[in-house]
Amino acid sequence: MRTVDEHLNDILGSVPVLPPLDLALPEARGAVLAEPVSAPVPLPPFDNSAMDGYAVVASDVAGATEAAPVTLPVIGDVVAGDPAVSALRPGLTARIMTGAPMPAGADAVIPVEWTDGGTAHVRIVRSAPSGHYIRRAGEDVRAGQVVVDAGTRLRAPQLGMIAAVGRARVTVRPKPRVVVVSTGDELREPGSGLDHGQIWESNSFMLTAAVDEAGGIGHRLTTVDDEPGSVRKMLEDQLAQADAIVTSGGVSMGSRDVVKEVLTGTGTVKFHKVGMRPGKPQGFGLLEGTPIFTLPGNPVSAYVSFQVFVRPALRAMQGLPPEPLPTVRAVLAGDINSPAGLRHFLRGRLTYGEDGYIVDPADVQGSHQLASLASADALITVPEEAQALPAGSVVHVMRLPA
């Protein structure tokens, strides 16, 4: 029996890093930037107004008060996007809109709220120092500055930043396309009727969503029955289009564990018992260069296996550090027992109190008991050497995706 770390290291040493692609910005959302992006010009590229108001020479309004307002002639309007070069002499003002370029000679902006809003002449009732409400050229980004580093997952703010420096396309490592399929004669599609001995299939829905949460693109297939020819055909059909394949079921020691039967001796795929609970039976390897993860069929086993093994692998395929789920230290709210020699992942609920995190273990921990997983938000990690941990012990807890 291999350890969790041995199995994970084998996976991470085998999965390929996806080659970079050149994508338009809308298509790059969620992908990982493969090159640093820098600004060709400063941002903003020119001094501009931070408010709707009046561009002035600050010394002209130095003494303005409610009791002694200053009145200035308004020579025109300066609007955002105005390409005309404008200038302002002392003793004059111009109406200016937010984002509009500052006229040469003006060194402050008076908000419209400090005035009577005049269009020919304006009465100003408050003074302002030089530089007031002016956004200076380059105060956000300097020319040549790297604005998004390589290795960054592109979300809304990063895409906005890249567009702001004039880039319409970027080179990225794309989201892995992951095919997810469950096997089993007893499985039926949700919405269909059940005969005796049948259950509705749930793993593929859960794992496809987990792929998306991990930054991949999950593609769910309908259930494949326990027939070797069906499994072989499914794999042959998907290898040409998938960056990875995730199966659940058919990997244990039973006489009808068809996934194990079909894949044993194929490519580099190997099957192991891994020292963990839930999720002891595991398989992994490359099939025509495509990673294939064969997970157990029990729902909680499949989900825990995904988070421990598949999620870090998908990150590695995008050139990211193969980090586990975000992990915190928490105090146990109840006693727990664990089998010797196995790394145990228990479902729990995490709260934050005055002294830090507290985790309450779920009452039931069976690998088939999906309800307790659906109500959990954390996995308590019990190390191999621990057999019993009393309430009050400090444990490491993986936070499940919200």
Q: What distinguishing features does this structure have?
A:
7 helices, single chain, six-stranded mixed sheet, five-stranded mixed sheet, 402 residues, 18% helix, alpha/beta
Sheet bearing the most strands, described?
Answer: 6 strands, mixed
- Helix vs. strand class: alpha/beta
Averaging pLDDT over every residue, what do you get?
95
First-last Cα distance: 33 Å
Which regions are unreliable across 5 or more consecutive residues at pLDDT < 50? none
Question: How big a fraction of the residues is strand?
Answer: 25-35%
Give the oligomeric state. single chain
- Order of strands in the sheet with most strands: 16-13-17-21-20-18
Number of helical stretches of at least 4 residues: 7
The general outline is elongated
Q: How many strand elements?
A: 28
- The amount of helix comes to 10-25%
Tell me the radius of gyration: 31 Å
